[in-house]
Every structure is written in C-alpha cells, then in structure tokens.
Amino acid sequence: MTATQGVAHGASLSVRRAGKTFPGGVVALQPTDLDLPAGEILVLLGPSGCGKTTLLRLVAGLAAPDPGGAVLFDGVDVTGTPIERRRVGMVFQSYALFPNMTVAENVGYGLKVRGEPRAAREAEVGRLLAMVGLADLADRPVDRISGGQRQRVALARAIAIRPKVLLLDEPLSALDAALRERLRIELAGLLRRFAITAIHVTHDQAEAMAIGDRIAVMRDGRIIQLGTPEDIYARPVDPFVASFVGTMNRLPGRLVAGSTADEVFFRPEAVTVGPPGAGPLAARVVAAIFFGAHRRLTLDVDGHVVEADIASDRPVRVGDAVSLALDAARLHVFSEPSGRIDGC
Amino acid sequence: MRITTLAAGLLTVLVAAFLVMPAVVSMVAGVSVSYARGVSECLTLDWIVEVWRLYADTIVRSIAIALATVAVTLLIGVPAAYALVRRGGRLARVAEEIVTLPLAVPGLALALALIITYGGVRDLRGSSAFIVIGHVLYTLPFMLRSVMAVLQSIDWRLLDEGAASLGASPWRRFVDVVLPNARPGILAGALTVVTLSIGEFNLTWMLHTPLTKTLPVGLADSYASMRLEIASAYTLVFFLMIVPLLVAMQMLSRIGARREARP
C-alpha cells in the first residue's frame, strides 16, 4: 500500500559494549550489548535516570559512547557517523517540530534536505499525512494543532525519510492520561504497519506492554531483563522488575524449607478470595475499588498489604473477613536479597 | 480606598506631565513662528523646511550610519550569539562579558581610545565608517543579548537535533530552522541597534569631523548656534524618526511575549 511498507523494514541494530560516562564521572550507562533484528520493536523501560534515554541517544548519534563502544546498523559500524548521516527517524519527547513551518513542511523537511523533487515530496507527504489521519491539517502551522496531532506529525516526519531505525523518546509523555491511553494503542498499530526496526523509550509499563515486541527493563544504567512482555510479566528476574511491571504482592515466607529467600512475590490474579476458613490465609478487606468487570481488593494479611481481583458482582465489602489461597505455580521467589525495589 | 486610588492616579498624571511637558513644549516651539510670543501667535512649518535646508546631510548620514551599523551587528552578532549559546560554559560567559564591556565604559573614553589607536589612518578618521565602528562597538552587546535570549527561549538545541535527525547539515539547520525561529529576537535586536545608533551622541561627538556630522551632533550644533525655533524643529524631526522605531520595538516584544505564552 505504501512505500514504507514492503520495501525497507529498517536495518538490524547491534550495540556493542556501549557505555556512557558524563564529564564529572557520572556513569549514565554501563557498557551494554543489544541486538535487534530488522523490523523488531524494542521498548526500553525504566524509571527516570536509569540510562534508557542515554542508550537511545547513543543509537541516534546524538551522543558518542565511551571508547570501546560501538553501534552497528546492518553490521556496519556507524559509531563515528553523525546523526544527520545515520538515517535514523527520531520522535522527541517534546516533538521538536519546527514552528516556522506548516504540518506538511515539517513532514517534508527531511525529503527536501535530501533534494527529493518537489512533486515526489508532496506525494509522499500527502500519503504519510493520510496514514496518520492528518490530511486536512496539511497547511496548518504546527502551533495551531493539538498535542496528539503534533505527536502524529512528529511520527510522520520521522518516518518520511524511511529511516533505518526509528527512535521514540517518551513520545506520549507530554499528553494527558486519557489521550495517552488512546494514542498508545494507535501508535502500536502504526508502528506495526510501518514494520520498521524501532526503539521506544518509556517509563510507563502499560505503554511498554502495548508497544514492544520485546522489552528491556533498565535500572542504574544497565539492562536487567530483556524479553517479551509475557516473559517479563510472568517470569521477572528480580524484585525490581517484578514490582516495576504490573502489580506485585509480597509476603514474608518461604516456598520450601531450606530456601534462602524469605519473601514470596505474586500477582493479584494468583490470589483466590474465599469465605473465612476456605483458604489458608486469613485477611480483612481494607478497600474495594470498582473497575467494571472486576473489583480490586486491598487486603490486610497480618499487617501486610495484598492486592487481589474478584468478579465485581461478588458481595464483598470493606471490613469483611475473608480467606486467601495462593496458586503455588504462580509464586515467585528471588534468591538475591530483595532490598530496595523502587526507584533507580 | 477610593481617595487613595484617586490620589495615586493624580500623582501619576502629574509626574507623567512633568516628564512629557518639555518634549511637547520643544515640539510646539519647532512649529511656532516665534516661541517668545507664544503658540497663540501662529503655527508654521517654515522652521522644519529650514532645518532640512541646513541639516539634511546630517539626517541622511545618521540613517546611513544606522543602517550600516545594523548590517554589521547582524553579520557579527547573530552568528556570534549562536556560537556562544552553542558552546556555553565559562568561556562563552567571559566572551559575552568582554563584548558587553563597552556599555560600562563612558562613550567619550571609548571614542578617545579609538582615535588614539586608529586616528592615524587619515582616510578612516575622516570618513563616516569611523563612526560606524564606534557605533558597532557600542550596540553589539544589545544585538548579542537579544539574539541569545531568543535562542534560549526557542530551545534551539532541540530544534537543531530535530533537523539533524532528518539529515540536515549544521549550516542548513542554522538557516532553515534556527534563524527563522529566532527572527523576533533578531528583529528586536536590529530595531534596538538602529534606535541607539540614530540617537548616539557621546561617542559620535568625539569621532565626527565637520564633514561627518550626524543628527544628534547637528542638534548640539543648532542648540549652540541657531535660534531656538530651528533647534526645536530639529528635535521634532528627530522625534518623528525615532518614535516609529520605538513603537515597532514595543510591538515586537509583545509578539514575542505572546508567542512564549502559547503552550
């Protein structure tokens, strides 16, 4: 249907021992390795300051890695190539649209710089604007369109140059919550249609789940876990990943006698709530929040907080005594001391 | 409450009147047949015609010098401002301070330094270019500050990175993206420079020769040697030149403020 589909699906991307130390000695990124096959969408997920944006800027060519690090597109070393010759599409957090240009001029700028003839340029811009649903705003100045529309202009502009790799730096974070949720789905759909190698940076785990083929969870300048959204959710490697992605309960206890871990972790869906005495754990309902199809219960188990979901038609009220049963197959234990699990 | 508001209003009007009156009196004098006999007598444009006959060359020269000054400050100031915000850090601040230094030095001292250093070059000393040099020294910091401020307010680095990611070379980024978005600041700087150059007296009085008089120098000359009405008419001409520039500056700064207020 479009030139961006079927032809170039972007390059494969390799990052080799790329680290970044800022002047003053702050290590923003530990030497990191990363391989991305052509066409895959990788999400870098982590709290602010974890090095995800730094890694993105190294791939973009907006920053140079410490000596010894390298970035390769399709096996070709581009470490010394400045961003303007790397052919990467970049969607910035605040979009970086050019206020002196219209929507169409913004989208067509990359093609203009490349000396593409006017007619071909206009055709391509028209097609891209139609694709992101902005065809009738082509001649608007970019400061006369909404935040969500700006975000799509930024995406179309980055795609227009048929980049080898598309890089998105928290592209939804400047939007309000409701719009963000809608655009998350829309963006995931568009990226699939472009079928392009992409790295998407976010601190929002729901966004990461919706958009990524794979997710790299980062903390303290390194990738802690790299896997599919299902992997990360079902088999987190440590308490940090477990708590950062989705809701995770923790209770003191041992899974088997003699194990070194003294805490067990489990998701709300691993909990079965029954009448008192039905399950092995006694609990009291502290809060019950209605979510439509289900009700999220906050429970007090011996002074520990546990969250669990029940069908919303079950007559459970705040203050009720209940019992909990845990699905043994869905309990997690981590051998390393769990320590601090929030923040970078 | 009412009374204090009223009193404050009255005070404001009085102070404003006190400050504005001399200008008004001077302008009225410029179109009075005889200032000594008062306005009631008769109004005339003869004095303005006389001013043009006597001082047309100074008016034209002042405009030419202002235009040359603004051209040079644009040529030096805009790239310099860009370079300074690009580089940043202590070195850039030191450079900015050095460029700003002429503002702190009395114009007469600056002129004297120029004459001591370059006065020996006869062709330069006798030409209007010598005055342009003085004016550039004096007005460059205003251009620099204005452009640096606008560059910082438009987040030039983000725009620059955006254009770079699309394949634009550093030069194209500057021309296509940085310059157009910095235009309000560049225009404001240019208007400031023109206004300052047209009104500059200290430096110019030292640097001029009988053949390179500017408008303010001519004004001083007319105050000293002509009848009051001619000097006043001359002031009126000066006002007519400078007020539109001031209004334009005010409007530009308002546009700039509105642009920043937009989300």
From TrEMBL, chain A:
The keyword rRNA-binding does not apply. It comes from the Bacteria. InterPro entries: AAA+_ATPase, ABC_SmlMolc_Importer, ABC_transporter-like_ATP-bd, ABC_transporter-like_CS, Mo/tungstate-bd_C_term_dom, P-loop_NTPase, Transp-assoc_OB_typ2. One of its GO terms (molecular function) is ATP binding. Signal peptide: none annotated. Residues 13-245 form the ABC transporter domain. SUPFAM superfamilies: MOP-like, P-loop containing nucleoside triphosphate hydrolases. Keywords: ATP-binding, Nucleotide-binding, Transport. Belongs to the ABC transporter superfamily. This is ABC transporter ATP-binding protein. It comes from Rhodoplanes tepidamans (Rhodoplanes cryptolactis).
Automatic annotation (TrEMBL), chain B:
It is found in: Cell inner membrane; Cell membrane. Pfam families: BPD_transp_1 (PF00528). Its main location: membrane. It is a multi-pass membrane protein. Keywords: Cell inner membrane, Cell membrane, Membrane, Transmembrane, Transmembrane helix, Transport. Gene3D superfamilies: MetI-like. The chain crosses the membrane at residues 62-85, 97-121, 127-144, 186-208, 228-249. SUPFAM superfamilies: MetI-like. Residues 59-249 form the ABC transmembrane type-1 domain. InterPro entries: MetI-like, MetI-like_sf. Belongs to the binding-protein-dependent transport system permease family. This is ABC transporter permease subunit.
